[in-house]
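Hi Y.,

Following your request, here is the sequence exactly as I used it, all 157 residues.
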Amino acid sequence: MTEQISTFFTIDMIYLWLNIGIIPFWFILIFFPNSKVCSVFVSSIFPIFILSVIYLYLVYYFYISEYNFIDNFNLYLGLDSLNDLFNDSGFLIIFWTHFLAINLFCGSWIVNDSRKFSMPKILVFFPLFITYFTGPFGIFVYWLIRIFYGKRVTLYD
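Below is the corresponding structure, written out as tokens. Let me know if you'd prefer a different format.
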């Protein structure tokens, strides 16, 4: 059975399913941020659990394929080493799963934080959309909106 799973879930198939599977979570976050569905399915541990299982599967998959995880630490040696790592599909899919999980977590945090201030969802729409594509910049845009909406500056919460 594990051979059938690994035969079906190739790296390309996992990449396809990750990209298709993350879209409903972002759709709910962006268009229905104050709904019960968003609270239960998106702003909870549920999507992070799913992405963690995929991440663990990938680590296991590359472990049995004798992938050299020690070479991943070469990313700290310089841009050329990082570029070499991005040419490796194993590193790239693990990185992409990591990227999707972190951005979704950030989007979920934006929605939860905007609920504290009872912000209109139109104000949260644009930072969420930007966070989907460029996580840190979207959080910064949300922070700017939050300053003006909350009428106070906080550097930490």
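DSSP finds eight helices and no strands in the chain.

Thanks again,
Q.
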